[in-house]
Prior knowledge:
By secondary structure, this protein is an alpha+beta fold. It has one helix spanning 2-27, and strands spanning 43-48, 55-62, 65-73, 84-91, 94-99.
Amino acid sequence: LFSTAVGVIGGYGFAFAVLYSLKVFKSQQASSLINLSSAKGGSGVVATSIPSGGYGEVRFVVSGVEMVKMAVSKDGTQIRSGTPVKIAEVQGGTLVVTQF
Length: 100
C-alpha cells in the first residue's frame, strides 16, 4: 500500500514537472510567419520593371525582413526598374503599387 501511494504521488509530481517545462518552452517559441497585409501603405523599389498591364517585382521591407514580391501597377501604367513606389494594396501574394 505504501509503495503504491508513493508511486501515484511521484507520478503526478513528475507529470506536473514535464507539463510545466513544456509550457515554458512553448512560451519561448517564436513565429517566422510574416503578414503581408502589414506592407500596405509602405514603400518599396521596383526590382523588375512592371510593364503596362503586366507584372514585375518590387523590393520592400516588412517586419524588418527585406522581401521581393510580384507587383502590378494600380493604374496599369508601366513603372521602370529602380522607381520608388508605394504599396496601395495586397491581393493574395501580389502587391498593387503606385508611383510616388
